[in-house]
Amino acid sequence: MTSGASPASAVTSPLTPKLAGFGTTIFAEMSALAVSTGAINLGQGFPDTDGPAEVLEAAVAAIRNGENQYPPGPGIPALRQAVAEHQQRFWGIDVDPDREVLVTAGATEALAGALLSMLDQGDEVVVFEPMYDSYQACIALAGARSVPVLLAPGDDRRYHFDPDELGRAITDRTRILLLNSPHNPTGKVFLTDELNLIAELAIEHDLIVVTDEVYEHLLFPGARHVPMATLPGMASRTLTISSGGKTFNTTGWKIGWAVGPAPLVDATKTAKQFLTFVNGAPFQPAIAVGLRLPDAYFEHLAMDLTVKRDRLAEGLIAAGFDTFVPEATYFTTVDIRPLAPDGDGMAFCRRLPEWCGVVAVPNEVFYARREHGRHLVRFACCKRIEVIDEAVDRLRTLAR
Ligand code: PMP
Ligand code: GLN
Asked: Between the chain's N and C termini, which has fewer beta carbons within 10 Å?
């Protein structure tokens, strides 16, 4: 090779065609933009305050106590027991901590493990869009195909799906129905009637339901979370996924879990053991402490976030956005067209730091059919109230 020339293999991307188009996640791009511009980051959903002291202290104690080597493959018994108790205490779901609970590296790994272990080439996954970005990537990695069903705001300003579209999305190749409630990025909490309809179709077509419930405790007044596994006939076909990140302000710890019938948990474990094998030894006992905190902790968490949700939503409305007030989660979606008539959310988010020192996330990345989300942008409220106030003051300058 002559000096200065690169071998062909170094200039051609080795990326598998399965991941073509996935590039860098929007969260990484927008958080990097926040750092490089010094803007307020209301993009990636992570809190700017620490979680409960008991939980943090338990992790420190575990490190000092030498819990620093590989934990058991399925997770430490104390955490599996705490997850089982949590499912019973909050949702009335009975699970065997030894056979029906698997600890994972965040909900992300539980999702990856479930999808990689249960999908074959050519299988289809029915999934509501917009959707969390890892879903499509994992479905693609499994060689399967995602079949999106649109969630769109109705006259009541809640997001709805068309039952006929859902019915048409299910074919004889459908293997998994992937659900997320409370839902990122719309803030929708699926109603019991909607869940019943989904459950009936899952039973009729003998589908596995994988349900991502990471925002199960971030509910605003009036919203009620109904886990899919509690509906008649669903416990035997539902894998429920959650994690400690949002519930205990520990998104960087990546302690998650999958709960459900042993065959679904075992399948997920088979893939999971070759992804990370295990993770977070000292954080596992700490999340167990968190899951056992008194009800007051969980109530306060939701109340505190409600104040922030309200403050952000008021500010976004005052700034002139068409604002969809969420029922749960960190996120508020706005239609930018009153302020940016071209409705290009991606361009808007890339320029927003320069215009007014705030970072948000364009919702189009959460859609398989991107045109449906082109004009929508997501702001996170999981920040200190003074940070939210400063951000909305800055956003108000956009109208001028
Ligand atoms: N699912 C949804 C809907 C999310 O918003 C997120 C991001 N926090 C995850 C899964 C990933 O969770 P974790 O950080 O526990 O992997
Ligand atoms: N779940 C968080 C969000 O939607 C961030 C997750 C991530 O950065 N991958 O903002």
From this structure: C
Count of domains for the chain: 2
The predicted-structure confidence for 280-290, as pLDDT tens digits, reads as follows: 999 999 999 99
Which tokens is 79 given? 């955490």
Each residue's pLDDT tens digit, 62-105: 999 999 999 999 999 999 999 999 999 999 999 999 999 999 99
243 lines ligand 2 (CB under 6 A): no
Residues 217 and 174 in one domain: yes
Cα 108 to ligand 1 centroid, rounded to whole Å: 6
Which residue has the CA at smallest separation from atom 12 of ligand 1?
107
Q: Ligand 1 pocket, 328 CB below 6 A?
A: no
Give the mean pLDDT of 267-293. 98
- What DSSP letter does each residue of 48-79 carry, written as one string? SS---HHHHHHHHHHHHTT--SPPPTT--HHH
Domain holding 21, by residue range, is 17-50+296-399
149 & 229 share domain: yes
Q: Residues 97, 44: one domain?
A: no
Same domain, 105 and 28: no
Asked if 98 and 154 sit in the same domain, the reply is yes
